[in-house]
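Contributing: when you submit paired examples, paste them exactly as shown. First protein:
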Amino acid sequence: MSGGLISKTKAEPNLTPLLDIVFQLITFFMLVINFAGDNYDQRINLPDAGSARPVEDDSRIAEDRLVLNVDSEGRLLRKDRAMGIDEAADEIRHEAALVKLGLQSTGVKFDPASDTLPTTIILRADKETSFGAVLGIIKACQAQGFRKFALKAMIRG
């Protein structure tokens, strides 16, 4: 018997399951990445406060938040645009309409006379912003049903 009858077989690994797992991991990490940092405008110089503390973050509650950045001249900064108070009020009205639409899609009825929107407004105002400008933004938010606010400041230290 000669060795010519034995054929050589090549074993190649099946990479399909490995590629499936890799794509699933990529999809998973894309879904859970935190895009919250995108809302914080780096041009805002927050005021210093000795009593500033982080907002209580209860991970059990999925709370809706809306970050508003106000520059030193009192303009609302959204998507690389600076808006005056009238345009800012329109933007806030639009955001409130989106929140109300989201509530309706989940079956929750919203009565503007008695209900408040569950969204927390995180207000990041520059330390040079006048109190009147900040108050104007807060009043525009309250007129649309927003009642929960968190003001951001830097911890003095």
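Second protein:
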Amino acid sequence: MENPASLSPAARILGFAGLLPLIGCAAGLVLLPAHREALLDAGFGYAALIFSFLGGLWWGQGVARGKASAALFSVAVVPSLIAWGLMLLRLLGCPLREALMALGVVILLSPIVDLALAQKQLNMRGWIALRLQLSAGLGALTLALAVL
């Protein structure tokens, strides 16, 4: 097996830049308390969108492998279904705090799939470390919104 390439600095910088919307929402809760509900809803929507995006990454890895199992493609749609389900629950009256907590937890757990995929295919050097950092950041920020 040949040595995999390393992630580019741009991938790292832009990955971490993806945390800025939730950092902005958290800061807004402190600076603009009159807009609390809108900021929490915006943070929830963004976190759900990014969680759904993770499933797209897994789907793409399955396509790139060329012989991925139906199980991988099944797992790849789970984040979108969870995000949609949580959005639906919000529309049906589920408290925002609980929806944010559930979303934060599943985001924190999402690297389990990446770790399983890494066992079966060659990944860029630094990919798993970046995924762990970004999921920890996004999950923690989502949970922080739930308790702020």
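If you have annotations for the second protein, write them as plain sentences, like these:
The CA atoms of residues 65 and 82 lie 25 Å apart.
The chain has a mean pLDDT of 92.
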